[in-house]
Structures are given as structure tokens and as C-alpha cells.
Design brief:
The protein is mainly α. It is built from 4 helices and no strands. It is extended, with a radius of gyration of 18 Å.
């Protein structure tokens, strides 16, 4: 479970931090109104880009965190498994999911 990290903390500490971060991330997304159907539909109709901005910012912060943790030696990138990317199936699946959101009025 904690293979990419050097053995600084116990497994229960890693799990507690993961649960805590996940809880607060979901809590703040909910407080910002990102579970609102109107906000999600407005994203698909190109009227409100707040969901895209927040999720893109979260991806960039995670990317920079991984890079900095690797640079200072807290994360061993040779231990991190990166699965292969299949662009066409992901693109088709994303389009189908988006179309389902729009058709369903979610």
C-alpha cells in the first residue's frame, strides 16, 4: 500500500491521511456546489467553467506535489506503477459519459 513512499510512517497513518484528504476534498467540492446538476450541465453547455477550473487545478497541484516529493526524496518514482494510456477507448468512453449526462439532464 505504501510502496512508493519510504517507510517513514505506518500503514495506518497513510490510510488515515488518505481518508482525511478524501473527506475534505469531497466536503469542499460539495460546499462549492459542484454536486449541483445545474452546475454540471452548465459545464457541458460551455456556460460555467468553474468545475473544469477546480478539477484542472487539483490535477496540477497533485502533479507538482508528486514532482516535489520525488525531488526531495519522499517518493521513489521507480516504485510507482503508471498504467498504459489507451487514448481512443478513453475518448469514446468520455464522450459517451458526457452525452449520457446531457441527455439525462444531470
Amino acid at each position: 500500500m505504501n510502496a512508493p513512499y519510504f517507510s517513514t510512517f505506518s500503514l495506518s497513518t497513510y490510510l488515515a491521511v488518505a481518508v482525511l484528504l478524501g473527506f475534505f476534498f469531497g466536503f469542499f467540492l460539495e460546499r462549492a456546489g459542484f454536486s449541483s446538476a445545474h452546475k454540471l450541465v452548465a459545464q457541458f453547455y460551455f456556460k460555467d467553467f468553474s468545475v473544469l477550473k477546480v478539477m484542472f487545478s487539483a490535477i496540477v497541484v497533485a502533479m507538482l506535489g508528486i514532482a516535489y516529493f520525488s525531488l526531495i526524496g519522499w517518493l521513489d518514482m521507480s516504485q510507482v506503477f503508471v498504467p498504459p494510456t489507451y487514448v481512443w477507448p478513453q475518448l469514446v468512453g468520455g464522450l459517451m459519459l458526457g452525452a449520457g449526462f446531457i441527455i439525462g439532464g444531470y
